[in-house]
Automatic annotation (TrEMBL):
Protein name: sphingosine kinase
Domain annotation DAGKc: ranges: 116-258
Keyword ATP-binding: yes
GO terms of molecular function: ATP binding; sphingosine kinase activity
Lineage: Eukaryota, Viridiplantae, Streptophyta, Embryophyta, Tracheophyta
Originating organism: Miscanthus lutarioriparius
Localization: Vacuole membrane
Length: 499
């Protein structure tokens, strides 16, 4: 939604734009001009939309220099701030004298300031994610745009796993208008967990977050740009942050016993988790590693025993089978408070509780080929796993594959590129408010379980020949076997968004 612009003085003056004499008018959030004397052809009016096409403006003597980021033609002042084919440019407006330049420059800066753009950002760069390109992306793609926009910043690189979580937990939030992650999705997840561990978590979690894709998956950045009709690119993600638009974002509490983890992207068990995690040995291939390993996995398609209980969203009450209710609702075995975070410390925020009136649990029984719960449409830049997902509707989108021929599964995975796979009769697709996963062993095995993956990180693993205990290995927050519960907290976080 466009922000209402304050009433401002209309400025009109004879100037030169890119060395051409024109009559220029600054009205509201738009700079417009036409060559002196009017006429046709070259006399056509041209314009710049400050909100959607201008990074910043600086005064250089008699000249106003606009740094632009506009669609094809827009950077030359031809108007049209559409999303396609944006590129950087410059429009130079030469005033009659320096006093006029200062007067116009102040007016333009005031109007840019009224847009609510961030002025100071903490930028966390992961130099190890994806193809290890985070540092170069920051230097070559991020820095030129934010400097042209006049945004002040502090850059900090992550040194080890959970470093971003530590940064967010101890950060002086008064110094910044947002926290930006130049990384894959995992660093943003760490930041969310760090903010929610703070004593002032209620204030901390409202600090706007931003994501600039520099990882393997990049599902959050892809989802945000796609929802606004913007092409997926690093520069478009940066410009979305500069513009300062924000939206609410659901946060999911993932809980087992006394252990709690906060998720903003997805949780998977079965095929997709196996492919995501077991393909790490091929990380040098970039995102192509996922398709490559999927084909390898099809040679020995796994199915997993287990059960999923869920509270359906309105309209999905007929999915699955009803679960017998006790006087206290379904016994989940999940502790409602006093949970600890991924470091074993008491959380600032213990997550949402489920109201008694909402405890209308239903269930699906395995075996399962793939279990997927998504908070946003894209799991990666080329996989629309949850096409109906919304950022702040208070629900997770579930996509469950049970009985499906092996090579039909391959077709479904490739149809995930545009989300059409959910139309298959092999896929049960629905929305839920809460989920309880009871993971079991692989079909045909008396010892081996599977992998449960949340936001690209293993949280439980049972494929080592025995059910694991929480904390057995770094990154394994939870045990494979005991129930894991997910509950959605609607719109808890805030994230920069193109519109």
């Amino acid at each position: 939604m466009a922000r209402p612009q304050p009433q401002a003085e209309v400025l009109t003056e004879s100037v030169r734009v890119n060395s051409t004499e024109v009559e220029a008018t600054l009205r509201g959030g738009e700079l417009a001009w036409r060559p002196a004397g009017g006429g046709n052809g070259e006399g056509q009016e041209r314009r710049l939309e400050l909100e959607s096409e201008v990074l910043g403006c600086r005064v250089d003597g008699r000249k106003l220099k606009f740094a632009t980021f506009a669609a094809s033609g827009g950077d030359n002042g031809k108007g049209g701030g559409g999303a396609a084919n944006r590129r950087r440019g410059e429009v130079v407006v030469e005033m009659e004298d320096e006093d006029a330049a200062v007067r116009w420059g102040n007016a333009i800066r005031d109007r840019l300031a009224s847009l609510g753009r961030p002025k100071r950002l903490l930028i966390i760069v992961n130099p190890y994610g994806g193809k290890r390109s985070g540092r170069s992306i920051f230097q070559n793609d991020v820095l030129p745009l934010i400097e042209a926009a006049g945004v002040l910043y502090t850059m900090q690189e992550t040194k080890h796993r959970l470093h971003a979580q530590e940064i967010a937990h101890s950060l002086d939030l008064r110094k910044y208008d947002g926290i930006i992650c130049v990384s894959g999705d995992g660093v943003m997840v760490e930041v969310v967990n760090g903010l929610l561990q703070r004593e002032d978590w209620e204030t901390a979690i409202k600090v706007p977050l931003g994501i600039i894709p520099a990882g393997t998956g990049n599902g959050m950045a892809r989802s945000l740009l796609h929802a606004s009709g913007e092409p997926f690119s690093i520069s478009n993600a940066v410009f979305a942050i500069i513009r300062g638009h924000k939206r609410a974002l659901d946060v999911t509490s993932v809980v087992q016993g006394n252990t709690r983890f906060f998720s903003v992207l997805m949780l998977t068990w079965g095929l997709v988790a196996d492919v995501d995690i077991e393909s790490e040995k091929y990380r040098w291939m970039g995102s192509a590693r996922l398709e490559f390993y999927l084909l390898l996995r099809m040679l020995n398609l796994r199915r997993y025993n287990g059960r999923i209980l869920f509270i359906p969203a309105p309209g999905y009450e007929d999915v699955g089978d009803p679960v017998e209710q006790t006087t206290n609702g379904v016994s989940t075995g999940i502790q409602e408070d006093g949970a600890t975070d991924s470091n074993g410390e008491t959380c600032g925020y213990v997550g949402p509780s489920i109201k008694e009136a909402d405890r209308r649990w239903r269930s699906l029984n395995g075996p399962f080929v793939s279990v997927w719960f998504g908070n946003v449409p894209f799991a990666s830049e080329d996989a629309m796993a949850a096409p109906k997902a919304e950022f702040a509707d208070g629900y997770l989108d579930a996509a469950i594959i049970k009985d499906c021929p092996r090579w039909d599964v391959v077709g479904l995975m490739f149809q995930m590129k545009d989300g059409t796979y959910v139309n298959s009769p092999c896929v049960e697709y629905f929305k839920v408010k809460a989920i309880r996963i009871e993971p079991g062993l692989r079909v045909g095995s008396s010892t081996k379980g599977g992998i449960i993956d949340s936001d690209g990180e293993v949280i439980a693993r049972g494929d080592d020949g025995s059910h694991s205990r929480a904390g057995d290995e770094p990154g394994h927050l939870m045990a494979y076997g005991p129930p894991i519960q997910l509950t959605v907290d609607q719109g808890l976080a805030t994230i920069f968004s193109p519109r």
